[in-house]
Amino acid sequence: MKINLENTYSQLADNFYQKRNPDQVKNPKLIKYNSELTEELNINLDNLSDKQKAEYFSGNKLFPNSQPIAQVYAGHQFWHYSPRLGDGRALLLWEIIDNNNLRKDIVLKWSGETMYSRWWDGKATLGSVIREYVMSEAMYNLGIPTSRSLAVVSTWDVVFRENIQPGGVLTRVASSHIRFGTFEYFLRSWDIESLKILADYSISRHYSEIEKSENKYELFFQRVLEKQIDLVVNWMRVWFIHGVMNTDNMLICWETIDYGPCAFMDHYNKNTVFSSIDQNGRYSFMNQKYSLARNLARFWETLIPLISDNTEKSIKIIEKNLENFRDQFDEKYFKMMNNKIWIFQEEYFDNKLVEDILEYLEKNNIDYTDFFRNLSKSVWEQKINNFITNYYNNTLEAENTFKKLENILQKQSWNFDEIWEMMQKINPSIIPRNYKVKNAIIAAEQNNDFTQMEKLCDILKNPYTDNQEIIKNMKAPSFIDKNYQTFCGT
Ligand code: AMP
Ligand code: MG
């Protein structure tokens, strides 16, 4: 066994966390183990049997030097502010330096009650844990910054939800677990000293290049804003709906976190919502931009006391940065969308064309993933003129739209191969279809059958594949899954 553990967050003052060992679980069984990720993390557990691994990745046993802590944070959840959330069912076990010399948190999701559990039980269901594993690893393979999953362990404990469910433990890896809500916690309890310690810790861990700058807190805000815009635009590239964009689910290390109610959209409709608790579509697909703006505004407030002693001056500085949020977002969004239709030269970017295409998809209930993938292929094979008739029922309106694209592509000066190379990482052929994920979870929960999950995870490792058989197998359902619902998974 080779593993080099370190801890820096748990060296901060004890008002940042509660020290606590995980609760013991009954009969832990290793369901999934991400050996590629362990290699990246420089963890070598080759001499441990699956049974022994299950002991460690359930929290029954602790690696030497582990210092488990539940981190405190707050957060704006939907409309209201919760002054103290914190890890109610997770523990940061240790930190590790990976092969790229980057520090990672290793967190166990299932702790038993902590002082932040409120009325909850500190447990996780096996279904929710499998879901997080599948979705987070899929996002990683799609090239989107995300927390990752190292292991799934099933337990014989029962978990009471709407019905009785089997228990599961997830080991999660992320570049850190510092949330917008962690900043809010210290600001709103008016503990400015801790707030400064948190900001300095975050800057040194994630933005060390600005550490010595005079206006480092302003730069910190700018960096977080840019990274978060990049993240949400990247979600939109693959039509991912996060579903619960509360400030406690936004990490300053710009990775996607909290895979409770998320889902990918098949047939294009910008108002899609999957989450059962999002009745008003607050976090619908297209509202993700506005949710991000709101969350950044909440994060912004926390930096006011740090930027300057003069509150008005601080506000002016940050307002200036936040003001051009919309322009920055739209610029990045339309660049990404133009790239999806093979337009790479800025002078030919055509945002109206992008919107027309999306409108065409919406009107005709067309699957987003298939459409852009087919379009890519048609351009590559120089068959754009037949694209619509080849794949979709032709309409006059569509013909004009795609003629416009054809004209632009003719004008663009190409390095065809180079662009094709880039296209391979832009339009995936495969996403975790909702019905596939659901079936894998049902098989695991009801029949103790993990083969579907295993297969699905394997397929999702190559989301840009050209293997037609796999693509066919992962196609959008013929029905429109309007009734598909996701849950926070608590
Ligand atoms: P989430 O919806 O997973 O972002 O959770 C929101 C807050 O509720 C976080 O502070 C969680 O730690 C807490 N929480 C969610 N589920 C549980 C649970 N089963 N037991 C204890 N705390 C929970
Ligand atoms: Mg959360």
Bound molecules: adenosine monophosphate, magnesium ion
Largest sheet: 5 strands, antiparallel
Q: Biggest sheet, strands in spatial order? A: 2-8-9-7-6
Fraction of residues in H or I helices: 40-55%
β-sheet strand percentage:
5-15%
Mean pLDDT: 92
Distance between the termini: 33 Å
Structural class comes to alpha+beta
Shape: globular
- H and E string: EEHHEEEEEHEEHHHEEHHHHHHHHHHH
Rg of Cα set: 23 Å
Count of strand segments: 11
Q: Which spans have pLDDT < 50 for at least 5 consecutive residues?
A: none
Question: How many H/I helices?
Answer: 17
Attribute tags:
single chain, 490 residues, alpha+beta, five-stranded antiparallel β-sheet, two-stranded antiparallel sheet, globular, binds adenosine monophosphate, binds magnesium ion
Task: Tell me about this structure.
The chain is an alpha+beta fold. It has helices at residues 35-40, 50-56, 126-142, 180-188, 192-206, 216-237, 288-307, 311-323, 325-340, 351-363, 368-380, 387-391, 396-411, 416-423, 434-447, 451-459, 468-473; strands spanning 17-19, 29-33, 69-71, 75-77, 80-82, 90-97, 103-109, 148-160, 164-174, 240-241, 263-264. Strands 2-8-9-7-6 form a five-stranded antiparallel β-sheet, sandwiched between helices. A hairpin with a 2-residue loop joins β4 and β5. α6 packs parallel to α9 (325-340). Magnesium ion binds at residues 248-249, 258. The site of adenosine monophosphate has 17 residues, from loops.
